[in-house]
Fold this sequence. Notes:
Blueprint: H1 10-28, H2 30-43, E1 56-58, H3 65-69, E2 74-77, E3 86-87, E4 104-110, H4 119-126, E5 130-141, H5 147-154, H6 182-189, H7 191-198, E6 201-202, E7 208-211, H8 215-218, H9 230-246, H10 248-251, E8 254-261
Amino acid sequence: MKESAFLLDDSYARDRAETLRNRERLSANHNLLYWYRRLYRDQFADLPAPPEQLSILEIGSGTSPLFQFYPNVRTSDVLPLDYLDYSFDCHDIDQFKAIPDASLDVLTLTNVLHHLKQPIIFLKRAAAKLKPGGRVIATEPFFSLLSSPIFNYLHHEPVDFSIGEPELSEVLGPLRSANIALPWLIFFKRSKWRDQLRETFEFDTKSYQPFSFISYMATGGISRCLPIPSIIYRILFDIDLAASRALPKVFASFFTITLTRK
Protein backbone atom coordinates (compact mmCIF):
# COMPACT_ATOMS: atom_id res chain seq x y z
CA MET A 1 0.00 0.00 0.00
CA LYS A 2 1.33 3.43 -0.92
CA GLU A 3 -0.11 6.71 0.31
CA SER A 4 1.12 10.30 0.05
CA ALA A 5 -0.02 13.42 1.87
CA PHE A 6 1.87 15.68 -0.53
CA LEU A 7 1.44 16.84 -4.08
CA LEU A 8 4.63 17.06 -6.08
CA ASP A 9 5.02 20.83 -6.06
CA ASP A 10 8.33 22.27 -7.21
CA SER A 11 10.21 21.66 -3.95
CA TYR A 12 9.06 18.06 -3.59
CA ALA A 13 9.60 17.25 -7.27
CA ARG A 14 13.12 18.68 -7.02
CA ASP A 15 13.87 16.71 -3.85
CA ARG A 16 12.50 13.52 -5.39
CA ALA A 17 14.77 13.92 -8.42
CA GLU A 18 17.75 14.60 -6.16
CA THR A 19 16.97 11.52 -4.06
CA LEU A 20 16.95 9.34 -7.17
CA ARG A 21 20.33 10.75 -8.22
CA ASN A 22 21.70 10.20 -4.73
CA ARG A 23 20.56 6.59 -4.82
CA GLU A 24 22.67 5.98 -7.92
CA ARG A 25 25.66 7.70 -6.33
CA LEU A 26 25.31 5.63 -3.18
CA SER A 27 25.42 2.38 -5.15
CA ALA A 28 28.74 3.44 -6.67
CA ASN A 29 30.33 4.52 -3.37
CA HIS A 30 31.54 1.29 -1.75
CA ASN A 31 33.14 3.02 1.22
CA LEU A 32 29.91 4.87 2.03
CA LEU A 33 27.98 1.61 1.84
CA TYR A 34 30.49 0.10 4.25
CA TRP A 35 29.96 3.04 6.62
CA TYR A 36 26.22 2.36 6.55
CA ARG A 37 26.72 -1.38 6.99
CA ARG A 38 28.75 -0.79 10.16
CA LEU A 39 26.24 1.77 11.43
CA TYR A 40 23.30 -0.59 11.04
CA ARG A 41 25.22 -3.42 12.65
CA ASP A 42 25.86 -1.07 15.55
CA GLN A 43 22.25 0.12 15.74
CA PHE A 44 20.87 -3.41 15.87
CA ALA A 45 23.54 -4.97 18.09
CA ASP A 46 21.41 -5.09 21.25
CA LEU A 47 18.06 -6.14 19.81
CA PRO A 48 16.30 -9.04 21.56
CA ALA A 49 16.42 -11.12 18.35
CA PRO A 50 18.20 -10.96 14.97
CA PRO A 51 16.83 -8.09 12.84
CA GLU A 52 15.62 -10.58 10.24
CA GLN A 53 13.15 -11.96 12.80
CA LEU A 54 11.72 -8.59 13.85
CA SER A 55 9.14 -6.18 12.48
CA ILE A 56 11.13 -3.07 11.54
CA LEU A 57 10.02 0.16 9.88
CA GLU A 58 12.45 2.76 8.59
CA ILE A 59 11.35 6.40 8.47
CA GLY A 60 12.93 8.64 5.84
CA SER A 61 14.32 5.79 3.78
CA GLY A 62 15.11 8.01 0.77
CA THR A 63 18.10 6.41 -0.94
CA SER A 64 17.31 3.24 1.06
CA PRO A 65 20.73 1.81 2.03
CA LEU A 66 19.19 -0.10 4.97
CA PHE A 67 17.10 -2.27 2.64
CA GLN A 68 20.27 -3.42 0.87
CA PHE A 69 21.45 -5.11 4.08
CA TYR A 70 18.11 -6.03 5.71
CA PRO A 71 15.51 -6.73 3.00
CA ASN A 72 12.83 -7.59 5.58
CA VAL A 73 12.74 -3.95 6.74
CA ARG A 74 9.71 -1.97 5.59
CA THR A 75 10.73 1.35 4.09
CA SER A 76 8.98 4.72 4.01
CA ASP A 77 9.45 8.34 3.07
CA VAL A 78 7.42 11.50 2.64
CA LEU A 79 8.43 11.42 -1.05
CA PRO A 80 6.57 9.02 -3.38
CA LEU A 81 9.35 6.65 -4.44
CA ASP A 82 8.37 3.49 -6.30
CA TYR A 83 10.93 1.26 -4.57
CA LEU A 84 9.66 2.02 -1.04
CA ASP A 85 6.81 0.33 0.80
CA TYR A 86 5.02 3.44 2.05
CA SER A 87 4.81 7.15 1.30
CA PHE A 88 3.31 9.33 4.04
CA ASP A 89 4.06 12.25 6.34
CA CYS A 90 5.62 10.64 9.41
CA HIS A 91 4.16 13.36 11.64
CA ASP A 92 0.82 11.61 11.05
CA ILE A 93 2.13 8.10 11.66
CA ASP A 94 -0.39 7.45 14.44
CA GLN A 95 -3.17 7.86 11.83
CA PHE A 96 -1.47 5.72 9.18
CA LYS A 97 -3.71 2.64 9.00
CA ALA A 98 -1.45 0.56 6.75
CA ILE A 99 0.74 -0.10 9.80
CA PRO A 100 -1.33 -1.55 12.67
CA ASP A 101 -0.96 -0.11 16.13
CA ALA A 102 1.44 -1.94 18.47
CA SER A 103 2.84 -3.99 15.57
CA LEU A 104 6.47 -2.86 15.29
CA ASP A 105 9.48 -4.12 17.20
CA VAL A 106 11.72 -1.34 15.91
CA LEU A 107 11.32 2.03 14.23
CA THR A 108 14.60 3.31 12.86
CA LEU A 109 15.80 6.64 11.44
CA THR A 110 19.21 7.71 10.19
CA ASN A 111 19.87 11.44 9.86
CA VAL A 112 16.14 12.10 9.64
CA LEU A 113 15.09 13.75 12.92
CA HIS A 114 16.90 16.97 12.05
CA HIS A 115 14.76 17.26 8.90
CA LEU A 116 11.42 16.98 10.72
CA LYS A 117 9.23 19.99 11.44
CA GLN A 118 8.32 18.67 14.93
CA PRO A 119 10.57 15.73 15.91
CA ILE A 120 9.27 15.37 19.48
CA ILE A 121 5.65 15.26 18.33
CA PHE A 122 6.61 12.67 15.72
CA LEU A 123 8.37 10.46 18.28
CA LYS A 124 5.46 10.58 20.71
CA ARG A 125 2.98 9.70 17.97
CA ALA A 126 5.24 6.95 16.62
CA ALA A 127 4.97 5.14 19.96
CA ALA A 128 1.45 4.08 18.95
CA LYS A 129 2.91 1.77 16.31
CA LEU A 130 5.44 0.12 18.65
CA LYS A 131 4.84 -2.95 20.75
CA PRO A 132 5.39 -2.44 24.50
CA GLY A 133 9.15 -2.58 24.85
CA GLY A 134 9.56 -1.71 21.16
CA ARG A 135 12.38 0.65 20.24
CA VAL A 136 13.06 3.79 18.32
CA ILE A 137 16.67 3.81 17.10
CA ALA A 138 17.86 7.12 15.67
CA THR A 139 21.31 8.26 14.53
CA GLU A 140 22.01 11.99 14.28
CA PRO A 141 24.93 14.47 14.18
CA PHE A 142 26.90 14.96 17.39
CA PHE A 143 28.73 18.22 18.11
CA SER A 144 32.16 17.44 19.52
CA LEU A 145 35.25 19.61 19.67
CA LEU A 146 36.39 18.50 16.22
CA SER A 147 33.07 17.82 14.48
CA SER A 148 31.53 21.19 15.37
CA PRO A 149 33.64 23.21 12.90
CA ILE A 150 32.83 20.67 10.18
CA PHE A 151 29.08 20.93 10.73
CA ASN A 152 29.15 24.69 11.26
CA TYR A 153 31.37 25.72 8.37
CA LEU A 154 31.79 22.86 5.87
CA HIS A 155 28.46 21.05 5.92
CA HIS A 156 25.67 22.34 3.65
CA GLU A 157 22.77 21.96 6.11
CA PRO A 158 21.82 24.76 8.54
CA VAL A 159 22.94 24.77 12.18
CA ASP A 160 20.94 26.85 14.68
CA PHE A 161 21.56 26.48 18.42
CA SER A 162 19.38 29.47 19.34
CA ILE A 163 15.96 27.95 18.70
CA GLY A 164 13.38 28.41 21.44
CA GLU A 165 11.19 25.44 20.54
CA PRO A 166 12.12 21.89 19.40
CA GLU A 167 10.97 22.37 15.83
CA LEU A 168 11.97 23.81 12.47
CA SER A 169 10.97 27.41 11.87
CA GLU A 170 10.53 26.88 8.11
CA VAL A 171 9.73 23.94 5.85
CA LEU A 172 11.21 24.13 2.36
CA GLY A 173 10.92 20.49 1.31
CA PRO A 174 12.10 17.18 2.80
CA LEU A 175 15.78 17.57 1.90
CA ARG A 176 16.24 21.31 2.32
CA SER A 177 14.34 21.70 5.59
CA ALA A 178 16.83 21.02 8.35
CA ASN A 179 18.56 22.09 11.52
CA ILE A 180 21.26 19.57 12.30
CA ALA A 181 21.62 20.94 15.83
CA LEU A 182 18.03 20.03 16.70
CA PRO A 183 18.44 16.37 17.85
CA TRP A 184 21.64 17.25 19.72
CA LEU A 185 19.81 20.02 21.57
CA ILE A 186 16.92 17.69 22.45
CA PHE A 187 19.02 14.83 23.77
CA PHE A 188 22.00 16.66 25.29
CA LYS A 189 21.16 20.27 26.09
CA ARG A 190 17.46 20.92 26.72
CA SER A 191 16.20 18.76 29.58
CA LYS A 192 12.65 20.16 29.31
CA TRP A 193 12.44 18.96 25.72
CA ARG A 194 13.91 15.60 26.67
CA ASP A 195 11.43 15.21 29.53
CA GLN A 196 8.53 15.37 27.07
CA LEU A 197 9.77 12.07 25.66
CA ARG A 198 10.11 10.43 29.07
CA GLU A 199 6.32 10.35 29.33
CA THR A 200 6.34 7.73 26.57
CA PHE A 201 9.84 6.26 26.42
CA GLU A 202 12.52 4.95 28.74
CA PHE A 203 16.13 6.00 28.09
CA ASP A 204 19.20 6.91 30.13
CA THR A 205 22.91 7.53 29.63
CA LYS A 206 23.39 3.92 28.50
CA SER A 207 20.94 4.56 25.65
CA TYR A 208 23.46 6.79 23.84
CA GLN A 209 26.26 5.51 21.64
CA PRO A 210 28.78 7.72 19.79
CA PHE A 211 29.53 6.65 16.25
CA SER A 212 32.51 7.61 14.06
CA PHE A 213 34.36 10.86 13.51
CA ILE A 214 35.83 11.59 10.09
CA SER A 215 35.08 8.28 8.36
CA TYR A 216 31.78 9.46 6.90
CA MET A 217 33.39 12.56 5.42
CA ALA A 218 36.25 10.41 4.10
CA THR A 219 33.79 8.57 1.84
CA GLY A 220 32.91 11.84 0.11
CA GLY A 221 29.39 11.49 1.41
CA ILE A 222 26.46 11.17 -0.93
CA SER A 223 27.58 13.96 -3.28
CA ARG A 224 30.99 12.60 -4.30
CA CYS A 225 33.13 9.47 -4.08
CA LEU A 226 36.67 9.89 -2.77
CA PRO A 227 39.19 7.40 -4.26
CA ILE A 228 40.35 5.73 -1.04
CA PRO A 229 40.98 1.99 -1.57
CA SER A 230 38.45 -0.10 0.34
CA ILE A 231 41.04 -2.04 2.33
CA ILE A 232 42.66 1.17 3.55
CA TYR A 233 39.31 2.80 4.29
CA ARG A 234 38.22 -0.13 6.46
CA ILE A 235 41.38 0.01 8.53
CA LEU A 236 40.95 3.76 8.96
CA PHE A 237 37.29 3.25 9.86
CA ASP A 238 38.18 0.99 12.80
CA ILE A 239 40.68 3.56 14.11
CA ASP A 240 38.16 6.33 13.62
CA LEU A 241 35.40 4.44 15.43
CA ALA A 242 37.69 3.61 18.36
CA ALA A 243 38.66 7.28 18.72
CA SER A 244 35.02 8.43 18.72
CA ARG A 245 34.15 5.86 21.38
CA ALA A 246 37.16 6.61 23.57
CA LEU A 247 36.81 10.41 23.48
CA PRO A 248 33.36 11.30 22.12
CA LYS A 249 33.44 14.91 23.32
CA VAL A 250 36.56 15.39 21.20
CA PHE A 251 36.00 13.17 18.16
CA ALA A 252 32.42 11.91 17.70
CA SER A 253 30.45 13.19 14.70
CA PHE A 254 27.33 11.07 15.18
CA PHE A 255 25.40 9.49 18.00
CA THR A 256 22.73 6.82 18.17
CA ILE A 257 19.92 7.08 20.71
CA THR A 258 17.69 4.14 21.58
CA LEU A 259 14.27 4.92 23.07
CA THR A 260 12.25 2.06 24.54
CA ARG A 261 8.48 2.35 24.62
CA LYS A 262 6.98 2.04 28.10
